[in-house]
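Handout, section 4.2: multi-component inputs.
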Amino acid sequence: MNIEFIQLAHGSGGSGTAKLIQQIFLPHFHELGLQPENDAALLSLGSKTLAFTIDGFVVEPPFFPGGDLGSLAINGTINDLAVMGAKPLWLACGFIISVGVAGTVLDRIAASMQEAAIAAGVQLVAGDTKVIESQGKSLQILITTAGIGILQTEKPWHTPRVRCGDQLILSGTIGEHTLAVLGARQGWFQDDRITSDCANLYPMLEPLHSLPDIHWVRDLTRGGLGGVCNELAQATGYGVELYEAEIPIDRSVRGWCEILGYDPLYLANEGKALLAVDRRAAAHVLGELQKTALGRHASLVGEISSQQQPLVILNTSVGGRRLVPAPTGELFPRIC
Amino acid sequence: MNIEFIQLAHGSGGSGTAKLIQQIFLPHFHELGLQPENDAALLSLGSKTLAFTIDGFVVEPPFFPGGDLGSLAINGTINDLAVMGAKPLWLACGFIISVGVAGTVLDRIAASMQEAAIAAGVQLVAGDTKVIESQGKSLQILITTAGIGILQTEKPWHTPRVRCGDQLILSGTIGEHTLAVLGARQGWFQDDRITSDCANLYPMLEPLHSLPDIHWVRDLTRGGLGGVCNELAQATGYGVELYEAEIPIDRSVRGWCEILGYDPLYLANEGKALLAVDRRAAAHVLGELQKTALGRHASLVGEISSQQQPLVILNTSVGGRRLVPAPTGELFPRIC
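Output:
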C-alpha cells in the first residue's frame, strides 16, 4: 500500500480510484466476495438472481439544469442495476447532512427523489440520516443510495461475456451532465443552455432483455466514455477501437469543449449507456434502441479489437489513430 | 414543514430526527413504501422475506477502546437486520472520504471491516468511494452500509406484534459505547478504561428464532434505552414501565455518569438489544439469552403497561416513579 494521503483523484472514477481499490479495498475485501468489476453484485437466492449496488452522490451545486442531487441519487442507483440486466425494485437512502442546510433545500431534494422514484416505479423502503458539523463555508447534502433489483436476462450483461469483434453501441450524445453542473457552478452558458442528461435507463434497456446477443452494458458516469472503455479493456484484456466520427456529441457541447479545452470523451454522463453486442446482432439492437425515447440518437461507435492489448484507440475523423488513455487525476470534482 | 435549518439535533435519533422524518421525508417517501418504524424494511420475494436496511456511520475519533469506525460500520448494519429476525448475508459499503485522510488510517479501517465481516460470516459484495474536499481541520471518513438479510422467524420481530403485558428484556449493560467514544475524544478515563460494546448481535439472537413468543426486538443505538422505549411507546400507543433497579449498568459507567452528569438511559450502545416477549415466555427467553456470551447479563427490565398513554415511566430504585421523556436536542455528536 503506497497511498500516503487520500486525494481528490482517488474519487475520480479513473486510475486514482482503481489504485485505491487495488491497494486498500481489495486486499481486505476480496475474500469477502467484493465484485468490483461490475456496477452491481449478483447474488443467487433460490431460483432468482438479485443485483445489489451502492452509490454515493456528491454534487455542487445540488440543483442544475436538467436535474438535481435528488434525481441523481435515484436514477444513478437505478442505472447501476439496469445495466446488469436487472429490474430495479427497492432502494434505501442514507443522508449525511451538514448543520445549517436549509429545510427548503432538503425538502426540494426529497420531492425530486419522490418524483424520480415514482416515474421509475421503484420503492424507497429504508433510510437513515446523520447530521455532521459544517466545516468551512460549504453546506452539503451527501446521499448514498443502495438498490436491489432482480435479474431479467438469461445471463447478466457483464464483462466475462465480452468477445473479440463485439460491436460497441453508445445510446446517445455524451458530455451534457458535466457541462450542465459546471455551468451551474460557474455561471457559464447563459445563452446556450446545456442540460444534464440525468435519466432512468431502464425503459430503454428493458426491450433488450430477451435478446441473447447483448454481452455487456455499462452506464457512462465518472470518467466518461474514455474511462469506461479503458475499464472494459482492462477487465477483458482486449483492445477497444472507437470511431470518432460516429460518437454523437451535441453541437453546443462540442463548441464549449473546444472553448474550455475539455475532451468530451472524459465528460461524465448520467443517462447514457455503452453496450457490447455480438457483431451479427448489432444492427438489430441499434434499431431497438433507436425506437426508445432515450436511445433515439444511439450509434455504433466502436468494437472490441482482435488485438490482445488492453488499449483504447480512437480512429479520428481525419483518418488518424490516437491512444485514449485511462483518465488520471481529478477531472471535474463533485459532479455526480 | 417548519424546519428552517438542519441542526445537529436532527441527526440525534431523538425527537429532532423524528421531526425531520415526519416533516420532510415522510411526506415525500410515504407513498414510496418507506417503512420508518422498523430498523430494516421487509420485502417479499417469492417464498422468502428479505430484510433490507441502510445506516450511516460517523464517529470521531475513528478508533476508540473496544471498536472503531470499521467494526461499527459492519456490526451496526448487521444488527439492524438481526433485530428483525433476519440472518444477515450481504453488505454494500459507500465511503465518503475527505482529501488528506492518511492511507494507513483507511487501511486500518478496511482491515477492521474485514475482520468483523469474517467473524459474522457476511459478504461485502459492493462498494463505492467518493472523495470530498476537506473543509476546516477535521478529516473524515463517512461510511454508509446497506445490508440484505433473509427473515428466519415465522413472523418478523416488529412493533405490530407488541401486546399489553409483554415483558421487556435488556440483553446487557448500557452506556459503554458513548463513554468509550467520548473518553477517546477527550482523553478521559485514563485509569478506568471503558470499552465500547460494539458487537454483532446475531449469534445472541439466533437461538431465539424458533420461539414464537418474541414479539419485538430493537438494538439500542442513538438515543439509548430511553430513546428506544419512547419510540416503542409512540409506535404502539402503549405505555412502557421500566424498573431502575433491574437495568444492568457497569459500575465504572455509573460512576462516570454521576461525575459527568449524564443519564445512562440516553447513552448509545452498539451491542445491546431490547426485546418485548410474551409474559409467559419471559423466563425462558431470559434463560436462553443468558446462555450466550453477549447476553450473559440479560435482565428483565420492564413491561408494556396496560395504560393507553404512550409514556415511558421509570420505577426508581427508591420507590418513586418518574417520566423518561424522549431525548431532545443533540445528546452526544458523532458517536456512531
